[in-house]
Amino acid sequence: MVVLAVSITTRSGKPLLSRQFRDITKDRVTELLSNFQGLVANSSSQHTFVEDEHIRYVYKPFDDYYIILITNRQSNIIQDLDTLKIFSQTMNSYLNSFDESEIFDNAFEILSSFDEVIAMGYKENLSITQINTYLSMESHEEKIQEIIERNKEFEAAEERKRRAKEISRREQERKMGVPLGAIDDSARFHSSNDPNLSNAYNSYYSHASPAAQQSYYQSQHKPSAATEQANVLSPQVTPQGPGSRGMKLGGRKNLPASNLPRQSFKSSPTPQASFQIPEPEKPLNNGILVSVKESVSAEIGRDGTVATSELKGSLELRINDQELAHGKIILESNVNPKDKSLQFKTHPNIDKNLFLSSSVISLRDQKKAFPFNDQSLAVLRWRKVGSADDTSLIPLDISTWVSPSDSDEGVFEVTLEFEVNGNYNSDIENLRFIIPVFTENVRINDDANDTNAEIEFIDEENGIVIKTGPVSPGTSNVIGLIVEAGFEDALFPISVLFNSSSGQSSISGVRVKSVASSQDEGVDFPFDAINTLKADEYVVV
Could you list the residue ranges that cross the membrane (predicted)? Predict the structure, then answer.
């Protein structure tokens, strides 16, 4: 059975929607629908199909409209009627009333449901429940990204309000003739967490002179050595007179690891760093290339315990030779397709029953061939969610140790301890730790640097980006940092980015045994296989 097109028209012959499943022009479809109106008008039978010399129209009237299935005359009429029934059911699920404007409003959803029923002109073996399930699927990654974007917008809006309020307050006090130093000391009362300072300010010093406010604040808090050094190195700003142009605000947004300005900045932690590791180049294909690609997400506690973990994977096929396109992929015997924890899902054109019974990935129609345009095609996907304290999906174990500095207030000694998990026996490459603090007062302790780590760059959006060398299995690695932060929690969450392209096996255990011909029994095709792994949302909280 080959379905050429499916259309919705009015009883008077006006086309509303049409979806072509073969290479047919719009003018040809319009001509066929016009012929249908003439055949229906001249038909006196009670059948729900009409034919001309080459085309069969299987139709169903509903209200003031027709839904029409256009096939050739050699098509099985029983299957055509069943397909038309499925089309009608999917369409009815989107329409509350049969109104022309409502059909247009839901055109995209209706046509999408038609695409689920027919693929390349052939009906898929799907029920109406399965079709509705596929159409209603939501993307977990998209939801997470939307939440992250909303949080960023909210934080940016709050920061703009705070800065605008601060600038307005300073400008107002400057116009009133209050010295700039007094403005700064008054702000200390507002922002201080010391209850004694807050009570003193509310009870008396809010109405006292700027000199009295400054004197009381300095008597309560002697500046630390780091603060004094910052005050000495900070440029002095002279208050401007009434005729001046005011203060010029601005600053650099991107700081290299060296030559930083002598002033400290901090930003609130973001849910996920925006820095991304560049994608590797497209690997060379010698004929058949099978890629097992996996990404892992995890939330790890500071003590190394695993709170949540998730693994996603796909098996992708690339073929650039037509003679190798009629093939089937045979997985290793250790792969259990019925393992519900991995949640395997095959491509709609793959024979799912064959995969479940024998771990073989093959097309439903053995007469067809895989695409041979050297483009990647995902034929199998899987997903696994780990339970709490489950390290089986964790390729990199990480523990953090944070302690305040004995000599400098607001400075912390951070130690990152990490090693490749025993379940993943391959090198970790392009490893980065991203600490969400924007400060120039940071350095790596040379006595605790096993992987030649270095500060790659520092910026407001990401914070401190630390790059390390490759991490090999069986080695314990340590990086020690001295970093300035307002408090310990400001150092978290630490985002971890990495990838691996030299793995001999995947975390899930999915591995290709051979690629055989689907037409000639006993003939194997040569192929190359690669395994890649990358971190998706890997954070230490």
Answer: none
Average pLDDT over residues 494-504: 87
Predicted pLDDT of residue 429: 92
| Domain co-membership, 76 together with 146 | no
Identify the band that residue 1 occupies on the pLDDT scale cut at 50, 70 and 90. Answer: low
Residue 295 tokens read as: 């990404």
Examine the fold and report which residue of 153, 170, 190 is the final residue of a domain before the chain moves on: 190
Q: How many domains does the chain have?
A: 3
**What is the torsion angle, in degrees rounded to the nearest 10, for the CA atoms of residue 257, residue 259, residue 261 and residue 264?**
30
Please list the alpha-helical segments (H only) found in 17-118. 26-42, 77-92, 100-105, 107-117
Q: What is the CB-side half-sphere exposure of residue 368 using CA atoms within 13 A?
A: 12
Q: CA-CA distance, 280 to 287, in Å (whole number)?
A: 20
CA distance 268 to 132: 43
Does residue 517 surpass a pLDDT of 60?
yes
In a domain, 213, yes or no: no
90, 19 Cβ separation under 8 angstroms:
no
CA angle 471, 477, 483 (to 5 degrees): 115
CATH, residue 104: 3.30.450.60
Measured between alpha carbons, how far is residue 273 from residues 158, 461, 497 in Å? 19, 8, 9
Predicted confidence (pLDDT) per residue in 227-281, tens digit: 444 443 344 434 444 343 333 333 334 554 444 433 334 334 444 556 777 777 7
**Rg value, the chain, Cα:** 33
Structure-block tokens of residue 40: 């229906």
Q: Report how far residue 482's alpha carbon sits from residue 412's, in angstroms, rounded to the nearest whole number.
A: 6
Bridge partners (DSSP) listed for residue 49? 58
Look at the pTM and tell me if it is higher than 0.90.
no
**71, 2 in Cβ contact below 8 A?**
yes
CA atoms within 13 A on the CB side of 451: 27
Please provide the average confidence, as pLDDT, over all residues in the chain: 81
Partners of 224 in beta bridges: none
| Shared domain check, 146 and 130 | no
| 376 and 420 both lie in a single domain | yes
Give a yes or no: residue 310 inside a domain: yes
- Domain range enclosing 55: 3-135
| pLDDT tens-digit map of 527-541 | 999 999 999 999 999
β-pairing verdict for 411-420 and 396-404: antiparallel
**Helix, coil or strand: residue 189:** helix
- Going by the DSSP 8-state scheme, the letter that residue 270 receives in this structure is P
Provide the phi-psi class of 227: left if phi over 0, else alpha when psi is between -120 and 50, else beta. alpha
Q: How far is CA 120 from CA 84, 253, 350, 368, in A?
A: 16, 52, 14, 11
- 128 and 155 inside one domain: no
Predicted confidence (pLDDT) per residue in 14-29, tens digit: 889 898 888 888 888 8
